[in-house]
Amino acid sequence: MSFTLQQVLVPVDDGYGTVDVQIADSHISAIAPNLDVVGTAVDGTNKLLLPGFFNAHTHSSEMWQRGIIPPVPLELWLAELYEFAPLEPEQVYISALGTAVETLLSGGTSVVDHLVLIPGKELETIEAAVRGYKEIGIRAFIAPLIQDESLNAGIPSAGTEREHKAYLRSTAASLQLMQEAIDKFHNPEEGIYFLVAPTGIQLCSDALFEGCIELSDRYNICRHSHLLETKAQQLLAQEKYGCSAVEHLKRINYLSSKTSLAHCVWLNDDDIAILAETQSTVVHNPLSNLRLGSGIAPILKYRQAGVNVSFGCDGASSNDSQDLLEAIKIGSILHNVTDLDYHQWISPRESVEMAALGGAKGLNLGDELGSLTVGKKADLVLYDLTNLSLLPRTDPIGLLIWGRPTQAVDSAWVNGKQIVANGNVTTINVDDLKKELFERSQWVTKRQSKSISEIESHYRSVMGLPERAAKGYS
Amino acid sequence: MSFTLQQVLVPVDDGYGTVDVQIADSHISAIAPNLDVVGTAVDGTNKLLLPGFFNAHTHSSEMWQRGIIPPVPLELWLAELYEFAPLEPEQVYISALGTAVETLLSGGTSVVDHLVLIPGKELETIEAAVRGYKEIGIRAFIAPLIQDESLNAGIPSAGTEREHKAYLRSTAASLQLMQEAIDKFHNPEEGIYFLVAPTGIQLCSDALFEGCIELSDRYNICRHSHLLETKAQQLLAQEKYGCSAVEHLKRINYLSSKTSLAHCVWLNDDDIAILAETQSTVVHNPLSNLRLGSGIAPILKYRQAGVNVSFGCDGASSNDSQDLLEAIKIGSILHNVTDLDYHQWISPRESVEMAALGGAKGLNLGDELGSLTVGKKADLVLYDLTNLSLLPRTDPIGLLIWGRPTQAVDSAWVNGKQIVANGNVTTINVDDLKKELFERSQWVTKRQSKSISEIESHYRSVMGLPERAAKGYS
User: Fold this and answer.
1) What Å distances lie between residue A444 and A316, B13, B397, B458, CA to CA?
2) Which of A174, A381, B91, B460 has its CA 20 to 30 A from that of A163?
3) CB < 8 Å to B98, chain A
């Protein structure tokens, strides 16, 4: 599987160069002008080559509910999400494919799937997602979402007495399940990586975090969690620990260079210093943070403090898309309104570095992936610069990141294997995928969610919102 | 040119209905299930019909500089924009076509072009844009951008003595030019509408505003300006008038139900009450407001005050795209972080109404356009709901507004004439357009802008930013 990309545009220093790129044995073996052709020759004229980006946080099965959950904050949104969650592993397989297709066609070659497990069919859920990702060929990081507290434990009590039902699976059972899954599915050689992924402080006990740390150390695998996505979670951490969530996670040794944390909206300066010191990674999910009204993560502060930042789409029912270029654009320009000093603003080249190398570093793979470097694995994306959305010719990376390219991806390779050619995914039949998605769904407008109505009044009271009749969501 | 859309999905109340829609003599003549076929039958199965949206504020010729202007605030960005502005009317023709294509393929059937005029070739510039829009068939609102003060007058002086060069064209000459252009080009019957469009308080004298008001009244045409896009403009208004810009514009009678105002980021509650009272329209340009760090416009407050709001892409070098669906999505979800009470958040159906009827009202055409209503003009867009980005089937409007649809537009009609079919613009050759854009441009990374360096130090001082060496923008 050797090939040579000829006459391709690549970023060099502050400009661009036209070079040839040789790929051999799944790796980049040479980058220079006018190389000999090794293997197949691929014409790169008028095309831009970049390292593949990381969709560094998503929940693939949320694709089944995109477009439908009303505009409410996370705590209420989650109630509705879980009430209508897909219950068949085959659905998980299909939405893993859908998530992969949209990620690939928007510049991503890796996906971190914080995978929601179907109760009672946990291993089947993981198997279904792994099957989908292997079939399509995207590099996949499977992070099964575990918790050991029930959903309403995630809302601050604010001094009220509240009973929480026991979660359906014990702490020990979840850890046992993870160990089985790691033994069965963790296989980096084949592009499938396992992560331990306790959902976050709002629904996990210390025992669960500690069990995950032990697994992470024993198997040398990464850790992935949500962190302080909402103001409610910030309040909850104070109730639960008497200190910030970040201080607590540091105390129990969860934070490390192998730890990536989705959202990180409600951190203070001390918290940020702890992330820097522990070399933890922030995964920025700007679109879901807006959609759910969670807030604007202080990304410029993270960068100034030296914290590694990457981008995620988050699940497709809080976004409601899996378009990585959209997440990168909004996640870059959004912060220009939080700091008047434009010298701090993120440039398009910096965005590319965050999306590629930032993603790789967050998964402890900065030496193997994330840049056009001889010796690194060949996860590559070739963009067609003659696409209308990338014209007229100005700065190709500026056009790609700040524009809204559609169908700009010409080709993509993962580990040197081509899985997108001429703008189409080659490893699966996308028409069949569309047919499955179409036939397994129906147009709906209103769902009656019992869960939201059960918790809404308490939520509004805790958050200091005026009491009022529920809005008819439409 | 009669036709009947059969079995098409349309929004009704809180749900959807499957209906037939008859179009005769450029108007919607009937909407009901199982109508007789009048004219050509068009299959609408698995398609969603909506009124065409308005790209209610853009500057078409900025397309030539998209992707290239560094991340700086408006006042510096403008300096760079003007320094490298296109100087040939033929370029204006081409970028009008490009702007129209991207607008059409993202749900827009109308565009308001706040058109930058080439010095010395003003009428030729307008003629070139009009020619492009007529050729492609989009409904076009031509708003030639005029001013009578030079660019650096737009930065507050903050007590320093600053000399401003005289602007290249006198107030009287600009008004004379507008009158000639109105006589020559204003032709609503053919889909070309003229607007008076003094750029804004930062670069216009009262005499210019007053001359525009007179033309607007005499010819019954609308008024269009920028308003308080940046904090610097808010400071400038206080220096210039001793009151807010909105109070001043009210005093000189510029505000009316025929007035639409782009941006409106820095208004206070009193200003908002004035907009409501005068029935002025706010055009929300969320993407350029983020990209230029201008701020987040208080859109929820406008809606609560009863101010009409529509969406614009703004020019393609501050966005850097002309994708209307992107502007609508971000312009809707962005405000969920400014008000914790989710009962105030904008729902996808409300977004559609803002983008269609809000746009029409802002141009004093609420009775003729902007909704699927019998008797209104047939500016219609048909979306293909079998597109991957709109699957699985949930709430079609939720998917369209909150997702990131690509190639979702199947067909579009303006005034009953089809100009998009099967996802392609039918009235011009888009490949030729791409070729023109490609051949008239070159890939560049760094331009040396003299203008920015001339004003940057003063700008930083006025805005209270620390003195420091200019960043090497890349």
Assistant:
1) 17, 13, 10, 56
2) A174
3) 388, 391
